[in-house]
Amino acid sequence: MNGKIRAFCNGKMIYKHVFDLNWYETESNTETGCNTFKKFVPEDRNLPTMYSTGLKLKYGTELYEGDKLKYTKHSGYIMEDSILEICWDEEYACFGYKTNTSMFHDMIFAFVNHDCLQEDVLNHCEVIGNIYQNE
Fold first, then answer.
1. Distance CA 135, CA 124 (A)
2. Tens digit of pLDDT for each residue in 112-121?
3. Sheet arrangement for strand 125-130
4. Burial of 1 (0-12, 13-18, 19+ CB in 10 A)
5. Which end of the chain has the least Cβ crowding within 10 Å, N or C?
6. Domains within the chain, CATH numbers bracketed
């Protein structure tokens, strides 16, 4: 894990490094009125944080826990067109994805189980949102 995290607050994403604990006094954070970690105000206590997977899509978009992706089927892989949700897999202690297909609904596919993750899956995806913006 590369230590990057983001939080969704007041309709905006705030990006930080996990060791930068003072989010409140940054210029981008002052705009939103959010603060997390050490300087809590009651409205912010449940602010969801999403960790970076360290992976990127074909054109450099970084993937975070909670991202929703649109996967487009291609001739090199068997998976059908689907919506994927990036999540943490407790069993393998790594990131993976869930798919909206009925056959595999809510089953987590760990990234470590793919021998060609970038070519088979990530190069054929685009981020369409995240679990906090579009339920």
1. 22
2. 888 899 999 9
3. 108-110, 94-99, 82-89, 67-71, 125-130
4. exposed
5. C
6. 4-47 (no CATH), 52-130 (2.30.30)
Torsion sign across C-alpha atoms 90, 2, 66, 86:
negative
Q: Read off φ and ψ for residue 12, nearest 5 degrees.
A: -125, 150
CB-CB contact of 29 with 10 (8 Å): no
Strands (DSSP E) found in the chain: 4-9, 12-17, 49-56, 62-64, 67-71, 82-89, 94-99, 108-110, 125-130
How long is the chain?
A: 135
Instruction: Check whether 68 has a pLDDT greater than 90.
Output: yes
